[in-house]
Specification:
InterPro entries: Methyltransf_25, SAM-dependent_MTases_sf. This protein has helices at 8-11, 16-21, 23-32, 47-52, 66-74, 112-125, 167-171, and strands at 36-41, 56-63, 81-85, 98-104, 126-137, 147-151, 157-161, 176-182, 188-195. By secondary structure, it is α/β, with parallel strands linked by helices. The longest helix is centred in the middle third of the chain and has 14 residues, at 112-125.
């Protein structure tokens, strides 16, 4: 069983067709206005990194995969970015260093045994007035044992963690005040909020 993030094949996929089908997710991020110092977890190839730099003073883009981070770095970003190659499950962000923590298509891959520590790291990374924005794939029912098979381009198959979060689960997340929304076509869920203070 693989508890790691997306496979290379999935992480190299261009998310633009998905976003074009669901513009409310991108509009919601624009309305959220991720300004100041932004931490992007599981930054991948940089499609969202590019959008974050439109408003942020500085973006710290963290990803475990060297290849995808190199693709991100090679993009024509216009903002101030620091790239960090690190395992998000073991990397500890500096405390109270960020105004926003952002992650896309990542929370669904976090195993249950890592959730408390993950959310603790997110809360610790935020400044007192800090906020969080997340988006992920959505379906109306969770998978059996939150597992899904993924097949690489070379034919190898892996079973990975894939938890389809439901709005009531996000809004009831202990220690957080999150407002979840499902897009019109019901394929993307996004949420924004802050730690309970």
């Amino acid at each position: 069983m693989v508890a790691a993030p997306r496979t290379l094949r999935r992480r190299h996929r261009d998310p633009r067709p998905l976003v074009r089908r669901h513009p409310p997710a991108q509009q919601a991020l624009d309305d959220f206005a991720p300004t100041g110092d932004v931490l992007e977890l599981a930054a991948g190839t940089g499609w969202w990194t590019e959008r974050l730099t439109n408003r942020a003073r500085h973006v710290t883009a963290v990803d475990a995969n060297t290849e995808t981070l190199d693709l991100n770095r090679a993009r024509d970003h216009h903002g101030d970015i620091t790239f960090v190659q690190a395992d998000i499950f073991t990397w500890t962000p500096p405390p109270a260093a960020y105004d926003v923590v952002f992650f896309s298509y990542w929370l669904s891959h976090v195993p249950a045994e890592h959730l408390d520590a993950f959310w603790h790291h997110v809360a610790t990374a935020l400044r007192p007035t800090g906020r969080v924005f997340l988006l992920d794939s959505y379906r109306e029912a969770r998978l059996d044992q939150d597992r899904q098979q993924r097949i690489l381009s070379d034919g190898r198959a892996f079973h990975i963690v894939k938890r389809y979060w439901q709005p009531d689960e996000l809004s009831a997340l202990p220690g957080w005040h999150l407002t979840p929304t499902i897009t019109t076509h019901r394929q993307v869920i996004y949420a924004h909020g802050a730690p309970a203070r």
